[in-house]
Task: structure prediction
Amino acid sequence: MPSVHRLAAALVAAFSLPPAHAHASDEDRLVIGAGALAYRSPFEGEGVSVFPIPILVARRGAFYVDGLEAGASWRLGPDSDHGVSVDAFVVARALPGENREQVTADAGVRASWAGSAGTVSIDYRRDITGEFEGGEATARYEVAVRVGGVTLTPGVQLVWQDRATANHMYGVSAEQRHEMIEDGVTTPLPVFEVREGGLNVGGDLTMLWPVTDRIVVIAQASAAYLGESARENPGLRDDFEVQTLIGFGYSF
Result:
């Protein structure tokens, strides 16, 4: 069984994938479900971890909860499926890998434009715990395609992290290495400081398959190519991160 921190990290990873967001329409809703997340760590000595996870998507008026993100969304226009929307949110952040267990929180804002050709969004989020005091900006494009009764949503995104955020995510402190040694980790990661900000390039695919009017099967896959400054870490085995999720949701 994973520790509480690792389960929390798995939840963050799962809901960092772009799901059918609760704030994607103005209708009140509640979706509860369960699934399994598989995550491949990019660090040496760490492999693929699989975790059971709950799934929660809820909206009431302007307010929403989408996994470990919660916030408020405002539509600028009468059409709930097209036009501009603005979100203000708080979201959890976990460290990649298996042996650096820490969950923090960011606050951010997101602006989106949805049209017949897809959805374009930009957001900026910043640490509010005082743990690393860094920020991150994301530009994203996705488009939903109907194939029979299944909705497929491919997406691409660019994620820019400032130096503090990149170092928090992909650097290894002396304290973290010491904790790994104390915990008996076979391959403790070397101490490394990320000295510059970096740009991660990612892609993903989400599948929603309504089995009944209330039950939907959810499958997601995501990969990200790490920025140059992060890739300089000698403790990295891979230059990328990969994660997949499969589960189901029940709509009330």
